[in-house]
């Protein structure tokens, strides 16, 4: 996160908006944590008890692999359907502000226990892995030995609130497992096949990630807890490859189109043009936006054979929405995705919003154009940053080498 000078914070004290943000993130974090900590019951031995319904919400950490943290997030004293709002990604999109999301997530208490990644089946009797794929929120209780008042942000996974090491975690309700996942828990098939089967049967995307992360899928002898960050990338890659393998056999689109959507200070433009599949990913970070002091641009290319310059989680999340659209219309295309990140995006809340915003963009066509140059010029005109897309390495190379793809026609 870009650091606001301490001198400015001292002058502002959270109410003058001297940093230019719509509200003070420090105060929002403080309010959320205090709200949570006030609901933590402490007994005479200083052991802390937290009870509530998990939305469901849980994380498998990666630090210390192969001995990792298993974290169950509980909103104190919040039960039943009310708990769902704390991790309702599709329900949040377009409705909740960045501040709303931070406030919700900082109101969760994280209960952590250490597990070895091998043989997660041994943990099934705790029902924690089953609780995180439940169709309904599940009441849980955690007995904490420690409690640390810190809000943890991440660029890939959702932020989480204060938490600590758990002496004991109990799932008090019976999880309601989707029938398709329940069947695969007992099946002995490769995890890739299981992920694709769930996706083809329209199981919630984020539930698939949880199922893989908590060791519920795959050959039984090979099942592992998978750190959540890795599971997100694995599911994006697995489903992306499945869609890619299908669309490269389709005919090309015959028009040049631009799509658009924005959320949380992130603006996405997607250009589709007649070509064999290839893709360009451009990120434009404004000054004072997350991670960047100055205007910063990053670029990535993926060719017809599915080879990209480097693995980027944001690109994999964005790519999915476009591939889903191309599979829907049974066509292939050249793709340019331009993500513009403004100063409104001051805290990372995970890459889910990239995935969902691009999915929504593909339902919002803003125009058709006679040439790729015209489409790029239109996107350039709509950008808030004063840049020339035609001067970028990836765009310049694409325009000069487009005739290579004509070889495949």
TrEMBL record:
Annotated Archaeal Nre N-terminal domain residues: 18-292
Keywords noted in UniProt: DNA damage, DNA repair
Highest taxon of source: Archaea
Residue span, Archaeal Nre C-terminal domain: 303-407
Pfam families reported for this sequence: Nre_C, Nre_N
GO biological process per UniProt: DNA repair
Functional note: Involved in DNA damage repair.
Family to which the UniProt record says this protein belongs: Belongs to the Nre family.
UniProt cross-references to PANTHER family, sorted A to Z: DNA REPAIR PROTEIN
Protein name stated in the entry: DNA repair protein
């Amino acid at each position: 996160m870009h650091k606001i000078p301490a001198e400015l914070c001292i002058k502002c004290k959270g109410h003058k908006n001297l940093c230019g943000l719509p509200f003070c993130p420090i105060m929002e974090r403080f309010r959320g944590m205090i709200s949570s900590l006030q609901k933590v019951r402490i007994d005479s031995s200083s052991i802390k008890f937290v009870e509530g319904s998990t939305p469901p919400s849980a994380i498998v950490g990666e630090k210390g692999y192969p001995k990792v943290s298993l974290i169950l997030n509980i909103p104190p004293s919040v039960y039943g359907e009310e708990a769902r709002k704390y991790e309702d990604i599709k329900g949040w999109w377009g409705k909740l502000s960045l501040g709303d999301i931070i406030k919700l997530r900082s109101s969760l208490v994280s209960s952590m226990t250490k597990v070895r990644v091998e043989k997660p089946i041994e943990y099934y009797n705790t029902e924690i892995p089953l609780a995180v794929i439940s169709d309904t929120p599940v009441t849980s209780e955690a007995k904490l030995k420690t409690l640390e008042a810190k809000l943890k942000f991440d660029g890939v996974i959702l932020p989480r609130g204060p938490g600590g090491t758990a002496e004991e975690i109990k799932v008090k309700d019976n999880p309601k497992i989707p029938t398709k996942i329940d069947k695969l828990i007992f099946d002995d098939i490769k995890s890739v096949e299981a992920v694709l089967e769930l996706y083809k049967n329209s199981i919630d995307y984020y539930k698939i990630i949880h199922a893989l992360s908590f060791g519920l899928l795959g050959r039984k002898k090979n099942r592992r807890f998978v750190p959540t960050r890795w599971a997100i990338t694995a599911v994006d890659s697995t489903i992306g490859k499945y869609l890619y393998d299908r669309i490269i056999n389709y005919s090309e689109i015959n028009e040049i189109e631009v799509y658009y959507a924005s959320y949380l200070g992130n603006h996405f433009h997607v250009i589709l043009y007649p070509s064999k599949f290839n893709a360009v990913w451009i990120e434009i970070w404004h000054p004072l936006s997350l991670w960047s002091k100055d205007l910063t641009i990053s670029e990535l290319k993926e060719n017809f054979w599915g080879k990209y310059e480097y693995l980027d989680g944001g690109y994999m999340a964005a790519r999915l929405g476009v591939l889903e659209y191309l599979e829907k219309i049974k066509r292939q295309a050249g793709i340019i995705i331009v993500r513009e990140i403004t100063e409104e995006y001051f805290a990372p809340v995970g890459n889910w919003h990239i995935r969902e915003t691009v999915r929504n963009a593909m339902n919002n066509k803003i125009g058709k154009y006679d040439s790729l140059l015209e489409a790029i010029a239109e996107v350039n005109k709509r950008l808030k940053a004063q840049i020339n897309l035609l001067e970028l390495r990836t765009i310049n190379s694409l325009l000069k080498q487009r005739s290579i793809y004509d070889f495949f026609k």
